[in-house]
Write a structure and sequence with these properties.
The chain is of the alpha+beta class. It has two domains: about 140 residues, 2-Layer Sandwich (60s Ribosomal Protein L30, Chain: A); about 140 residues, Phosphoribosyl-aminoimidazole Synthetase, Chain A, domain 2 (Alpha-Beta Complex), CATH 3.90.650. About 35% of the residues lie in helices and about 25% in strands. The chain has twelve helices and 13 strands. The strands form three sheets. A seven-stranded mixed β-sheet has the order 8-10-7-11-9-12-13, sandwiched between helices. Strand 4, helix 3 and strand 5 form a beta-alpha-beta unit. The longest helix has 18 residues.
Length: about 375
């Protein structure tokens, strides 16, 4: 029996692939064979090293269709991969996308997802092509898996393990908005149904929640945008890696407290973090205050920010910050330092000094 309602459901694997393929641009000269053959064929750029990264996203675990449109979900899933490439000092070039879809998923949702992929691919200033992937059905939730290849000059590839004692820890952009945006959306969902009767029905249909008027979500659009469609720092990553001043770099995807500890442990250095220096936008601070969130704690645990955290030679911090601001408009803020005492990780803020603990998201952590 066909359980699809009129106007919903998927038309069949090959028709889905055909419609996806027609929606993708084919103007990238590096793509010799794209969607439609047994494998893609791409031409590597002369003198460049290939970078590879992959991420998997499970509905109900990594994304919630009640909080974001499918187009926004597509953007954010692709952004996670672009951010990994940026953290190595590279630029993304090609992507493979794999979907496991329940049969009731609407074709318009799949098309919106790919529009989100394409939106971000067109945002980084150079061609990034979706060259293939796979499609399967599932009785469970939607699963999205993306593999991205990027490229960088070998001498400019930046790892997370190169920090030295005396280096200054710096972060691009602003922190805390992603987690704060998620908290705003959860608060709106928890509003009694009598006050927002459309919410339960909308969420059950797999559509983005539209909170009632006068909710916090109405007043903090910038915070929600940072949660739903964060912009990976691709241009910034290339500039930082090529500067000669950056010795280690990682993207803020699991939360600043977790990611900075990766740098410390992999580099064999201790860390002193200045909680009072964490850059938080004024709008985000207002939302935190309304939600009664601790700004420092929230900025430390906020994942999927896709900012870049780097260890910078102290003599290069001011020049690098000025150059980054001039060329990209993105601030670079010193937030701490690397010290000789390996495995000594501390944070100091208005409450005093304490050990730095990972507070971000971790799968299988219970």
């Amino acid at each position: 029996m066909d359980h699809r309602k009129e106007g919903t459901g998927l038309p069949g694997e090959f028709e889905v692939i055909r419609r996806i393929g027609h929606a993708l641009p084919d103007t990238d000269p590096s793509v010799l064979l794209g969607v439609g053959d047994d494998a893609a064929a791409v031409a590597p750029a002369p003198g460049m090293t290939t970078l590879l990264t992959t991420d998997t996203f499970v509905e109900g675990v990594d994304f919630d269709v009640a909080f974001s449109s499918w187009r926004q979900i597509g953007w954010k899933c692709m952004a996670a991969n672009f951010s990994d490439i940026a953290a190595m000092g590279g630029v993304p070039r090609h992507a493979l996308t794999t979907l496991c879809l329940p049969a009731h998923r609407a074709m318009e949702d799949v098309e919106a997802l790919y529009l989100g992929f394409r939106d971000l691919a067109g945002h980084v200033g150079h061609p990034v092509s979706i060259v293939g992937g796979d499609l399967s059905s599932t009785d469970g939730p939607t699963v999205i898996s993306i593999t991205v290849s990027g490229e960088a000059a070998e001498e400019h590839i930046t790892r997370r393990s190169g920090a030295r004692a005396g280096d200054i820890l710096c972060v691009t952009g602003l922190l805390g908005a992603s987690e704060t945006g998620l908290r705003l959306l959860r608060a709106a969902r928890e509003q009694p149904a009598a006050e927002n009767p459309a919410m339960e029905e909308t969420a059950a249909q797999g559509r983005t929640v539209q909170p009632a008027s006068n909710q916090p979500t109405d007043r903090f659009e910038g915070v929600l945008r940072r949660h739903r469609t964060p912009v990976p720092r691709v241009r910034e990553g290339v500039l930082l890696a090529n500067s000669g001043w950056v010795r280690a770099m990682i993207d803020v995807s699991d939360g600043l407290s977790s990611d900075v500890l990766h740098v410390g442990r992999d580099s064999g250095v201790g860390l002193n973090l200045d909680g009072n220096a964490l850059p938080i936008a004024e709008e985000t601070r207002r939302a935190m205050e309304e939600l009664r969130l601790d700004p420092v704690g929230t900025a430390l645990e906020s994942g999927e920010e896709f900012e870049l955290l780097c260890a910078v030679a102290p003599e290069g911090v001011e020049r690098l910050a000025a150059e980054l601001a001039e060329r990209t408009g993105t601030p670079l803020t010193p937030i701490g330092e690397c010290v000789t005492a390996a495995r000594r990780y501390t944070i100091t803020d208005h409450t005093g000094s304490r050990p730095l603990r990972p507070k971000g998201y971790e799968h299988f952590s219970g």
